[in-house]
Amino acid sequence: MKVDLFPTLDNEGAAMAELIRQRLQSLPFDVTVRVVPSTQPFALAKSVLTADAVVLDLTPHSPAHRYTAMAYPWRHDRVLAVSRSYFPLNVSPARTGGAALYPDRLGADDIAAWVATQVRELAAQGKPSLLQRARGAVGMPKGGSSQRPDIFISYRGTDVRAAQALRTALENGEHHDGRRQVVRMFDAGQLAHPDAVLPALIRWNVLAIISDVVAAARETWIVDTPQYLGSWFTQGELICLPYFGKSDRLVAFDPSTGRVTPGPEKYVAELDDAAERRLARYFTNSHPNLMAPESTTVLRALRPTRLALARDEVFADEFWTVPLLQCPHCSTPQPRPAAIDVSGFLTNANPRLYPVDPDVLATCASGRTMLRCTNPDGCPQRFTVRELPPYYLWYGLPVADGSFLGTIPAYAAVPAT
């Protein structure tokens, strides 16, 4: 089996490449590993056409990173994208597990072990066809996954134990006459830091990732507790259902009684044409595989003109960089509202999200001063603020410093008791 390896061109990258090479050559079948130092896009495209697998080190914090071409085929099944830190927001590889989750780092030994596991799986699949190689060389994604989920579980982070127990029950065939279900749920903190104050772009980026699972799953099950609707993300997951025509595929599970019922009407969102168009704009401009930061930069410069597209909120600097704070004291909706307020959700009124000047967060973090809730009507809630590692964005065209990478500052705000 032929494996081409594209490391970051620094000492850490070279050391990890050697670990990967050693691990692959210890596999119980013949593996030839070629380390490719070239940074030219053609070199990567050639490897995808000729190699059986490609290992691509996409560590963004490296000064010699690999984000120097207009497109990468990381969405292809045989391109194993890895990173010693977390990926940019708009990099979503076909095979997950080769990178750290934000804001952590992943050791080279763990990455080498993951690569070896993936190469074993690819070897078992046999040689890729010329068509499969060509699709990968131009960055086209692979076909449908054989592990399409039967069920997606939606829950509040405070109910994670109940959600995990439900996942185990469903995977064991409970509630489905013994038929084991393929279940997807995102663990707490898997997609977003639990304390991060997220700008709209990142909120919708996370929800876009979740929406792919909602769209693919046959059913969505909710862990129905009094606090379920208190989260922006749980409301967003429910709003995804009618967007994908799956309102009738909602199931409610009450962990206090074990009772399973069809989703109550109060959890069924109704979308008018304006709401559907707005959701389409949000998803298109925040989904990892669709967003184009380089285009946004151009359209942002055209905002003073009469071009309607350029004036859309999704291209405004505020959408991308201004964090939105949900205050537990004054902005959490009532636990049992009569119905989902779609308009309120889309305008950040329900649940209530307050914009916070990034400079204010930076000042609080550096001076270790408390942040006051920005509710214009007044609120006594205070928050402790600390700086988090920045989020990365990959640009298909070079940004001002020619790096192909941009960053968004990030902060955590924790309510003071």
Explain the overall architecture.
The chain contains twelve helices and 15 strands. It is of the alpha/beta class and 417 residues long. Strands 6-5-8-9-10 form a five-stranded mixed β-sheet, with helices on both faces. A four-stranded parallel β-sheet has the order 2-1-3-4, with helices on both faces. Helix 1 links the parallel strand 1 (2-6) and strand 2. It starts with a strand and ends with a strand.
The structural class is alpha/beta
Query: Can you list the strand order of the major beta sheet?
Result: 6-5-8-9-10
> Tally the helices: what do you get?
12
The mean pLDDT is 90
- Tell how many strands the DSSP assignment holds: 15
User: What is the overall silhouette?
Assistant: globular
Amino- and carboxy-terminal Cα gap: 58 Å
Please give the share of residues in helix: 25-40%
Largest sheet: 5 strands, mixed
